[in-house]
Design goal:
By secondary structure, this protein is of the alpha+beta class. It has 19 helices and 22 strands. The two termini are 54 Å apart.
Length: 698
C-alpha cells in the first residue's frame, strides 16, 4: 500500500481526463466556465493572482507518510511557490501552480497514493479525524481508520462529486472533540457501549457566514453502521439540498427548512433503506505504525539551554505508549518551506515511525519519538529555515489565507495575525499565554479561519468613510465544545484593522493580570472579559480622515490603499453587500439634505449630484469598480448597468446631466429632486434583488 487511503479507478480516469481538459482549455476549445466546473471538484482552484492555481490535496485520517510529505515538498518546489500550506481541514495545499503543469502534478501525487479529488466544489470533502489518534490515554479508541474507511468507500462514486454543496465529515476519538465533529455536516465522536465500539452521531453543523452547531442524532451507533449513516445523510442531502441557491444549499439549511425532528425522522428511514440496499458494514483498515528502533537515530543527550525545556513543555506530549512522545511542529500561517518539509520527512523516518499527522490548528505532529531522541529532534528543528519550535505568538494563532491569495478574501488575515504577534512581542505581555488560547482569524465572514469556534476571533469586512474604503474586523468570542456539542462564539462590534493588534494585547493583558491564565479564557470571558472588552472597544473604533492618517485605509501587509477591485466577481458577496448598503444609505442622507436646501439653489443641485454619485458608486462595488472620481463613477455606471440592460435607459439623461455639471458646462438644466428620488429608488430595488453572489435576480 503506497499511501494511507485507497485511490479508486474513478480518480485515475478523472486525472487522465484532466490532462485532456487542460489541453482543450489552453487551445481555446473548452470555455472558462466549463473548465472551472470540471477542475474545481478535482481540487484545483484559481488564485487571486490571474494565471496561478492552488491544488488542495486530501490527507484522510490526518496521516501522511514521510515519502508523501517528501513528494509534496518536491512538487511545491518544482511547480509552485516552494511552500506547503496546511489547512484547518487537514489538507495540504500547493500554491502558485500554472494550469498547464497541473496534469503532471496530479500524476506525481498518484504515484505516492495522494489525490486532490473532491478537494473543492460540491463534493464529499476531506474526511478529518483527531491528529492524536492512537496516541493519547484519554481517547476511547483511534478514530483515524474510520475516517480512512469512509474515504475509501465514497471516493469511488460519481455521486460523491455532484452533491448540492460540499459535505464535511469528521471523527473524534474522545470527548474533547479535537476533530470538531460538532460543527461538521456529519460528525462522529467515539464511544463504547457494553464493550462494543461505536459513535455519538451529530448532523447538520457547519461554519460559514451563518454558522450552526450540529444536532445530536444518536447517542450511540455501532461502528459497523458508519457507512450506512453516511450514505443515508448523503441521500437525504441530495434530495433536500437547494441546488438553485448555492448560498442556502449546505446541509444545515436543509435541516432548518425541514425542522430537526422531521429531518431526523427522514434520516432514520434512509438509514434503514441503506441497509436494505446492501450498503456494507464498515471495514476498518489497519493503520498500525512501524515502531522506531534505537538504531534509527543517534542520541546526543538533552540540550541544556532553557529553550529546549520550554519547547518540551509547550509542544511535546507523552504518548500512552511508555517511552514515546509526539512533538507538535509549529507552523506560522500554516506554511512550511519545501526544504523544511523534506527535513521533517527525514526526521520521521530516522527518529519516528515514518509517518506524520496534520491537525486542525494548521500544524504537523511528529509521533512515536523515543524519549531519548527528543534532544536530537529539537536540535534538528532548530536548524530549520522557518520557526518550527513555537517560540513566538504567531504559530499559536489560526488564520485563513485571506485576500493575499483567495479570490473571496476581503482582508489579509494572515498579515493581521503577524501584526498581533509583533504587537505582543513588543509589549510586556507574556507570549506564553498564546499557547493556551484559540485565536482564529478569517479574511471574510465565510469562516475558513474557523472564527466561530474561537476563544477570541475576528472576521474581515469593509467599511467606507467619506467615499474611501478601509478594512475592518468583527470581534467574536466565547465558543466552547465538548462531547455534548459545540457552542459557537458570539459576534460583537467591529474594529478598524489597524487597531486590532493593540486591542488584542490590551484584552490579553487584562486576562493575564487578573489571574485567569490557570482557569482559561472561556471562564475569563464569562466572568469578566466580555464586559471589559465591550467597555474598551470604543477606544479602538475611531477612524481618522484619510488626509489625517492614510494608514487606516491600508490593510496589514500592503502599502497601497485598501480596495476590493481585484476580488473574484460574482462569487461570495460577504462584506461587499455591507459596503453597498452603506453607500445607498449615504445617498439617502444626501438626498434628504437636498430637499432641505432652497429649491433651485446650487446647494440643492450639489447635494442631488452627490446623492446620485454615492448610489451609483455603491452598485459599482458589486462589479469590482472602486472609482472615486465622480465623473468616472457616472460613466462606469452607464457602461456597466445601463448599456448592459440592468438599469432602465431613461436614467442615462440624468447621469449625462450631472456629468455636464461636473465638467463645468453652462446652461445645464436643473435636476428635479423627484427624478433623483426615482433613480435612488431604482438602485435600492436593484440592491434588494441582489443575491449573496452579487448577481441580480429577475
Amino acid at each position: 500500500m503506497t499511501g494511507i487511503y485507497h485511490i479508486p479507478e474513478r480518480v485515475y480516469r478523472e486525472t487522465e481526463q484532466h490532462s485532456k481538459d487542460v489541453t482543450a482549455y489552453l487551445a481555446g476549445d473548452l470555455s472558462e466556465e466549463m473548465f472551472k466546473s470540471r477542475r474545481v471538484p478535482r481540487g484545483i482552484y484559481g488564485q487571486r493572482q490571474d494565471g496561478l492555481y492552488m491544488v488542495r490535496v486530501r490527507v484522510a485520517g490526518a496521516t501522511l507518510t514521510a515519502p508523501q510529505l517528501r513528494r509534496l515538498a518536491g512538487l511545491s518546489r518544482n511547480y509552485g511557490s516552494g511552500k506547503l500550506h496546511l489547512t484547518t481541514r487537514q489538507d495540504v495545499q500547493l500554491h502558485e501552480v500554472y494550469i498547464r503543469e497541473t496534469p503532471e502534478v496530479l500524476d506525481k501525487l498518484l504515484e505516492v497514493g495522494l489525490t486532490p479529488a473532491g478537494g473543492g466544489g460540491n463534493t464529499i470533502r476531506n474526511v478529518t479525524s483527531c491528529a492524536h489518534g492512537g496516541l493519547t490515554a484519554d481517547e476511547v479508541f483511534d478514530p483515524r481508520p474510520y475516517a480512512v474507511a469512509v474515504t475509501n468507500y465514497f471516493l469511488q462514486f460519481d455521486s460523491s462529486y455532484h452533491m448540492p454543496r460540499k459535505l464535511k465529515i469528521a471523527f473524534s476519538g474522545c470527548g474533547e472533540d479535537c476533530a470538531l465533529a460538532g460543527i461538521n455536516d456529519l460528525g462522529f465522536i467515539a464511544r463504547e457501549q457494553d464493550g462494543q465500539r461505536g459513535f455519538r452521531v451529530f448532523v447538520g453543523g457547519g461554519l460559514g457566514a451563518n454558522s450552526r452547531s450540529a444536532d445530536l442524532f444518536r447517542d450511540f451507533v455501532p461502528a459497523s453502521e458508519v457507512l450506512r449513516i453516511v450514505e443515508a445523510v448523503k441521500r437525504l442531502f441530495d434530495r433536500h439540498g437547494d441546488r438553485r441557491n448555492r448560498h442556502r444549499a449546505r446541509l444545515r439549511y436543509a435541516v432548518e427548512r425541514l425542522g430537526v425532528e422531521a429531518f431526523q425522522q427522514e434520516l432514520e428511514k434512509e438509514w434503514e433503506q441503506a441497509r436494505i440496499d446492501g450498503i456494507p458494514d464498515l471495514s476498518v483498515p489497519d493503520l498500525s505504525e512501524r515502531l522506531p528502533s534505537e538504531s534509527n537515530g543517534i542520541t546526543g543527550g538533552e540540550p541544556t539551554e532553557g529553550k529546549f525545556h520550554q519547547w518540551k513543555e509547550r509542544v511535546v506530549h507523552p504518548q500512552r505508549q511508555d517511552g514515546y512522545s509526539r512533538a507538535e511542529i509549529m507552523l506560522i500561517r500554516g506554511d512550511i518551506s519545501s526544504g523544511d518539509a523534506i527535513r521533517l520527512a527525514d526526521l520521521a523516518e530516522r527518529y519516528g515511525s515514518g509517518e506524520l499527522r496534520t491537525d486542525q490548528r494548521q500544524n504537523l505532529f511528529l509521533p512515536w519519538i523515543p524519549d531519548e531522541f527528543l534532544g536530537e529532534v529539537y536540535r534538528q528543528l532548530s536548524k530549520s529555515d522557518g520557526e518550527l519550535t513555537g517560540d513566538s505568538a504567531a504559530p499559536w494563532m489560526i488564520a485563513c489565507k485571506g485576500a493575499a491569495t483567495c479570490r473571496l478574501g476581503l482582508c489579509r488575515s494572515q498579515d493581521l495575525m503577524a501584526a498581533i504577534s509583533d504587537e505582543a512581542e513588543a509589549s510586556d505581555l507574556d507570549t506564553n499565554i498564546f499557547s493556551s488560547l484559540k485565536i482564529h482569524i478569517s479574511g471574510c465572514p465565510n469562516n475558513c479561519g474557523q472564527h466561530s469556534i474561537a476563544d477570541l476571533g475576528f472576521f474581515g469586512g469593509a467599511r467606507r468613510q467619506d467615499g474611501q474604503s478601509y478594512p475592518m474586523y468583527h470581534l467574536v468570542a466565547g465558543a466552547e465544545r465538548n462531547s455534548d456539542g459545540t457552542t459557537l462564539s458570539e459576534i460583537h462590534d467591529s474594529i478598524p484593522a489597524k487597531n486590532v493588534p493593540e486591542f488584542v494585547v490590551t484584552l490579553l493583558r487584562d486576562y493575564q493580570e487578573n489571574g485567569f491564565g490557570e482557569i482559561g479564557f472561556s471562564e475569563y470571558w464569562q466572568r469578566r472579559g466580555e464586559q471589559y472588552a465591550l467597555k474598551r472597544l470604543p477606544e479602538f473604533q475611531d477612524v481618522p480622515d484619510y488626509s489625517a492618517d492614510p494608514k487606516f485605509y491600508r490593510d496589514w501587509g500592503l502599502l497601497e490603499d485598501f480596495s476590493l477591485a481585484d476580488r473574484g466577481e460574482g462569487e461570495c458577496g460577504a462584506g461587499v453587500i455591507e459596503m453597498v448598503a452603506a453607500e445607498l444609505k449615504r445617498s439617502e442622507k444626501l438626498w434628504r439634505r437636498a430637499t432641505r436646501a432652497r429649491d433651485g439653489s446650487e446647494e440643492q443641485q450639489d447635494f442631488l449630484m452627490k446623492s446620485v454619485v454615492a448610489g451609483a458608486g455603491g452598485l459599482l462595488l458589486t462589479r469590482g469598480k472602486e472609482k472615486q472620481d465622480p465623473v468616472e463613477v457616472l460613466g462606469k455606471f452607464t457602461d456597466v448597468f445601463i448599456r448592459s440592460g440592468l438599469t432602465d435607459p431613461k436614467y442615462e439623461a440624468l447621469l449625462v446631466q450631472f456629468g455636464g455639471l461636473l465638467h463645468g458646462e453652462r446652461d445645464i438644466p436643473q435636476a428635479d429632486p423627484e427624478t433623483v428620488r426615482d433613480f435612488l429608488d431604482h438602485l435600492q430595488a436593484l440592491f434588494d434583488r441582489m443575491d449573496a453572489s452579487l448577481n441580480f435576480r429577475d
